[in-house]
Amino acid sequence: MSGDRVVKDRGMKADETRQRLLSCAERLFAEQGLDAVSNRQISEAAGQANNYAVGYHFGSRTELLRTLLRMHVERLDVIRQRSIDGIGSSPELRDWLRCLIQPQLEYIGAGPGLSYFGQFWLAMATNPTTAPVLYTEAARSESLAVTLAGMYAALPPLAEETVRVRNLMTQNILITTFADFERRRNELGASDSTSWQGFSDAVVDGLVGLWSAPVTTG
Q1: For the whole model, what pTM was predicted?
Q2: Residue 61: exposed, middle, or buried by beta-carbon count in 10 A (0-12, 13-18, 19+)?
């Protein structure tokens, strides 16, 4: 076997190992929470005899988390950009909220088999040490930035504090709702690939109401 072939085979094996570590880590984090899962457990679940496989392949636990997040953000960007491209020349608040919500639910609900993306993001968001990592990585998404800018431009006039509160509500609602939808789909065997559409419409309806609600004055 040539030296180039050996190097190529080693690279492929390393990539496969990294992917197994990522998949197993995400599932364990989703099922047990971040603090309850050790790097050793991740290595064992991925079939690695080396208990330091996470450190070897990712350098640190934080880099493992970043790698997982970036993988998902890149895939979501493709779906979200398609949504943005399809909203026409005069989008309204509902259109932008659909671009915000639909990609995550399609990503969870249209794929084959069990998924842990939504539950993993919930675990990240509710852990004080990892929440900043989650939001920093999400902020790298250009399509998300375009969506949020469009949404804010489509809002009725609102005070800064009102926007801040409703942003917080929206963030918390979506993170927990995506995780609940995914968990329920997994419990049912993850065989359904269409219910996410009606579910997405219902979530959009709810958030249109939230952002369009009258503001108490006086």
Answers
A1: 0.90
A2: middle
